[in-house]
Amino acid sequence: MQELYDAPLAPLTTFRLGGPATRLVTAETDDEVIAAVREADDTGTPLLIIGGGSNLVIGDKGFDGTALRIATQGFRLDGTKLELAAGEVWTDAVARTVSAGLAGIECLAGIPGSAGATPIQNVGAYGQEVSSTITEVVAYDRREGETVVLSNAACEFSYRHSRFKQHPDRYVVLRVRFELEDAEGLSAPVKYAEAARVLGVSPGDRKELAVVRLAVLGLRGGKGMVLDPEDHDTWSAGSFFTNPVLGADEYTVFLDRVRARLGDGAAPPAYPAGQGRTKTSAAWLIDKAGFTKGYGNGPARISTKHTLALTNRGEATTEDLLALAREVVAGVREAFGVTLVNEPVTVGVSL
């Protein structure tokens, strides 16, 4: 294992923000990951797990403890079964499954980060979520001190949530197993209306895998959601807020607020979310509350390409970013009575 002390963490995140860690350990095998975790637990040392760094907001003071960067590698296909080591670059893994002619995660192309992070957040985009193809997650259970294999049901997946996110200090993901589909070179049925429109198909239709992947990359790129070191719109964590899911009574009150602010003809995006609940669009809320693309005049601003991304324009601090996030949250709450929830994990700071 590689060890560094007083190690900068900002370069390991897509925000490029945050202070140093007391100690940074890079693990390249599952055994090294487990050894580093056990050492931290045995000595009572605070532990921060870092994969691709695409979902982290680290405080300016850094992290007083051991930061463990998981850099394990492993891509194994057996028919339609896929196993990924936690440190595998996610977008590269998606590209390889598409090249192999397997469907199920092609609409998740271009999402930055590592494979091990995908079940934690139940990563999803353009009508696909990893929970629909994950069969098992191999993880180290810090409470029991052993490696465990969790079935899809045991992962307790829901919208941008999982058992791993519910218990962030208990599990360290080591490997993720998927069951993909051989549809003779075609994608899974296209569910997302925007993707279907770009592809020239109806929702539910299939399209060539490579075509779908490229279309998704184009859609994400147009929103600044594909990493580019030269484009500050991509110095972000992607979507900073999750789409709110409202109960029936909450949704009724919300609609009243929308009409009072925008007029009787206003119709916010609405998607059934089960059990009488409705999901609406955080991006729509942000925009209609007055926070348009490019909003801000400081070093942290809303992306010029997408209102859901908060960005570091190059010289921002984490406090600059949080100040902007708090302003957006307060503005949306005042306008619509809905409290936005941040999607990235915060370390040493909070909204």
Characterize the structure shown.
The chain is an alpha+beta fold. It contains 9 helices and 18 strands. The strands form 6 sheets. It has a 5-stranded antiparallel β-sheet with strand order 6-7-12-10-11. It is globular and about 60 Å long. The two termini are 34 Å apart. The mean pLDDT is 97.
Tally the helices: 9
Structural class: alpha+beta
**How much of the residues is beta strand, in percent?**
15-25%
Question: What's the average pLDDT?
Answer: 97
Q: Order the strands across the largest sheet as they lie in space.
A: 6-7-12-10-11
Poorly predicted regions are none
* Percent range of helical residues: 25-40%
- The string of secondary-structure elements, in order, is EEHEEEEEHHEEEEHEHHEHEEHEEHE
The Rg value, from CA coordinates, equals: 20 Å
Report the sheet with the most strands, covering strand number, pairing sense and barrel closure: 5 strands, antiparallel
Q: Tell me the distance between the termini.
A: 34 Å
| Shape label | globular
Oligomer: single chain
Secondary structure: number of strands? 18
Which secondary structure elements does this structure contain, and how are they paired or packed?
Layout: E1 2-8, E2 20-27, H1 30-43, E3 47-50, E4 56-58, E5 63-70, E6 75-78, E7 81-85, H2 90-99, H3 118-121, E8 124-125, E9 128-129, E10 134-141, E11 146-151, H4 163-166, E12 171-179, H5 193-199, H6 209-222, E13 245-246, H7 248-262, E14 271-272, E15 278-279, H8 282-288, E16 300-302, E17 310-312, H9 318-336, E18 345-347
Parallel strand pairs: 2-5, 3-5, 4-18
Antiparallel strand pairs: 1-2, 6-7, 7-12, 8-9, 10-11, 10-12, 13-15, 14-15, 16-17
